[in-house]
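*** Protein under study ***
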Amino acid sequence: MGRKARMKPERLSEKLLQIRNGLGLSQPQILRHLGFEDLIDYRRISEFELGDAEPPLPVLLQYAHIAGVHMEDLVDDELDLPARLPGKVRYQRVKRQPASRKAKR
C-alpha cells in the first residue's frame, strides 16, 4: 500500500509571512520570539514563508501565540488573520493534572 500525502494548508506560508511582517520582525527576530533559535536555523523561516517546508506543530503553536490568534486561524484556508497583529486572543492555559500512579479500581 502506498502512503498518502498529508494535506497541507495552501495559505499557511502566506499567513506566516503576514505574522512576521505584521509584528515588524526580521527572520532571526521572529525565531527568537518563537523561542526556537537554538533548535532551528533562521533560514528555515524563509522555507516556511515560501511554502518549501511546513513548520512542526510546536512551532505553529508558538506562531499562533505570538500573533494572538488561534491555531485554527493559521491552518484553515477559509479564515483570514486579523488586519492588526497581534490579535486579541488571550490564552488561559489550563495545565493537565498529573495522572495518579495507582490504578483506580
Observations:
- The chain has a mean pLDDT of 90.
- The first helix runs from residue 12 to 22.
